[in-house]
Specification:
Strand content: 25-35%
Shape: globular
Oligomer: single chain
Distance between the termini: 30 Å
CATH topology of one domain: Rossmann fold
Organism: Spirochaeta isovalerica
Largest sheet: 7 strands, mixed
CATH architecture of one domain: 3-Layer(aba) Sandwich
Structural class: alpha/beta
Radius of gyration: 16 Å
GO cellular component, one term: cytoplasm
Subcellular location: Cytoplasm
InterPro entries: Ade_phspho_trans, PRTase-like, PRTase_dom, UPRTase/APRTase
Subunit structure: Homodimer.
Number of helices: 5
Helix content: 25-40%
Strand order of the largest sheet: 5-6-4-3-7-8-9
Length: 176
Amino acid sequence: MKEFNLDDVIRKVPDFPKPGILFYDITSIMMNPEAFKWVLDKMAEVFSSRNIGAVAAVESRGFIFAAPLAEKLGLPLILVRKAGKLPGETLKKSYELEYGEATIEIHKADIPVGKNVLIVDDLLATGGTLKAAADLLIEGGAEVTDVFSVIGLPFLNYSEVLKDFKITTFIDYDSE
């Protein structure tokens, strides 16, 4: 597969959401059909050879990348939602964000007991959201083997938080 320079299409927004932060805007990939197709095709290429039984998508931009991947690979799609968005019995976990605290939840019935799960999000910063999602899936009986984000910010040390999982990113930014 031909490589694609994602850096050329990722919009960088200074001082968002607060002064001193450089925000990497993933929506510009979706505005570029060639870039978006490349990301989806590359994800399918990378993950088709791994022993994955389901794909978990982190709300909300993770949905955009995980749903087409799950369809391409013929796998179930598990939604990791913000608290209060799912009816029925859920598992919940609160965790620290770079800018505060959040709570996520998963339908308990959607967790594939004993199966390997790939967790997908758009951007990997501190790893807190993906770790919380992994904790919920493991609590429900799944095995989390892989985490994926289009963009990685390794200077925020996510690899320490996610050390138990294989981490894949397509582009990394090494400083703020």
